[in-house]
Amino acid sequence: xxxxxxxxxxxxxxxxxxxxxxxxxxxxxxxxxxxxxxxxxxxxxxxxxxxxxxxxxxxxxxxxxxxxxxxxxxxxxxxxxxxxxxxxxxxxxxxxxxxxxxxxxxxxxxxxxxxxxxxxxxxxxxxxxxxxxxxxxxxxxxxxxxxxxxxxxxxxxxxxxxxxxxxxxxxxxxxxxxxxxxxxxxxxxxxxxxxxxxxxxxxxxxxxxxxxxxxxxxxxxxxxxxxxxxxxxxxxxxxxxxxxxxxxxxxxxxxxxxxxxxxxxxxxxxxxxxxxxxxxxxxxxxxxxxxxxxxxxxxxxxxxxxxxxxxxxxxxxxxxxxxxxxxxxxxxxxxxxxxxxxxxxxxxxxxxxxxxxxxxxxxxxxxxxxxxxxxxxxxxxxxxxxxxxxxxxxxxxxx
Length: 399
Fold this sequence. Notes:
It is a single chain. The protein is α/β, with parallel strands linked by helices and 399 residues long. The chain is built from nine helices and 16 strands. The chain has helices at 8-23, 32-45, 103-118, 140-146, 204-222, 260-281, 300-314, 332-336, 370-391, and strands spanning 49-53, 57-62, 70-76, 127-132, 153-162, 170-171, 175-178, 180-189, 193-194, 229-238, 244-245, 248-257, 284-293, 296-298, 319-320, 341-347. The strands form four sheets. Strands 1-2-4-3-5-16-6-15 form an eight-stranded mixed beta sheet, with helices on both faces. Strands 10-12-8-13 form a four-stranded antiparallel beta sheet. Strands 7-14 form a two-stranded antiparallel sheet. Helix 1 (8-23) runs antiparallel to helix 3 (103-118), helix 2 (32-45) runs parallel beside helix 3 and helix 3 packs across helix 9. The radius of gyration is 24 Å and the shape is elongated.
């Protein structure tokens, strides 16, 4: 599979970089060493770049014809606070920190794509490479945007390694491909009291338990059965002693939706159920919803463009749609609120290890996936760039 690049040395350099980054993972906001390694490689390739963008982000620019909008390609760089248990010979040397989501691969793929693009005699449009920090916290993309990373950009493309598809496969789907990731906190309060005399007080724990049960009816009864949605309570804190009625109970959870209307519906339903249940139980309540990443939704004509580029990279048989919905979050959605683009997935299955998902301490993926992924980024930069050069936009035209 390395031969698809035309130069096995490019693949070898991607593998070497990936293993170095995997061995030295850095958490969101701490990607200093990772950024230094990327900057060094870009310097070797002669690609102009800016460092310290939105923290440890890097923006690199390959020139194209003047007046043509740029094609942006994005990779994320951060790791997770997980103790690695893969047993890999290049496993993390940092206790409790691991590249458990493939961002070491994404960064290395983009470095490979940079090398391929730097070899082009002429690009139809400028290409901007975004090496983004803090994706796992959902704050990196908005920070990059605020720092001007999308200025002059006409389209943006990204991708993610996926254990569910074979290496050499590029998964292109129109419509939702990642969910919105909002969080909620519900605080229920009462005066407290003696556990032996509950009639003298009200009990926030009972009220909170009813809220938990009520929240489970949102997906079952409020949301259209054909729409994807998740409401999960992840934490329940209350009480100080067995014989004391708590004066406070706190619920924390996550909301996942693949479309903006369902996202709003979930938020409204959480507030309604919490407030009405609290009123029925006679306890006080406050509901706080913290917006997270927006859904990632590929518009049809952008998916068609990405599919064309993917076919150039791996052939028609190597391109397929998603076979299962994905409720995971991805801050790439913030970019799509500003410029058109598409987010794909790169097959990276290791047979027998599919049961270890991303964010697992045993998550692994097949390094052979990096070659077609790098070739895809080169291809989509050329296809989208040609569209921008001819039309000034990648948006659909005509009737």
